[in-house]
Amino acid sequence: MSDLAAEVTAALGRSILPSVIARGAAGLRVVAAEDGVVTLAADGSPGAVLPVLGRIEAQLRAAVPGVTAVRLAAAGLAPPEAGDLAEAARAVLDTEINPAIAAHRGRVTVAGVVGGWIRVRLEGGCQGCSLAEVTLRQGIEPVLRGRLPAMTGLVDVTEHEAGTEPFFSPAKR
User: Are 16 and 44 contained in the same domain?
Assistant: First the structure.
């Protein structure tokens, strides 16, 4: 185990792991640490880790100065070929994102890929939700960027005004 991996493992055990376990994951472990980029794997439900991945990264960066980025590995998903970006995005959404947002009656689908830009549509409780932008920019986009290096960006093509049952209505802001 590299020095960086050992430092991150110690930091996880001190302050992060208890919170992740309390959220429903069985554990969180370092699977790679190279050039400041740390890849973690969630034992149990990755959906318990996804909503707090940004906070985990901030805590690890503060605790271990050598950390420049944190990614979450997904079991069974191989890195995509450039031509398979849409299919790879669908696989990540179906295995990592949709189980987490299903609790809010939501789902996200790939509407297409153009020049590396992944176009997504939010459905169900996410369509018209006042927190949809937060979900996209702080939840979905970082996961897709971490898993899909060929990705250029993320575009929301949802007609939010047509949402009939948003989880958080604009009036609840």
Answer: yes
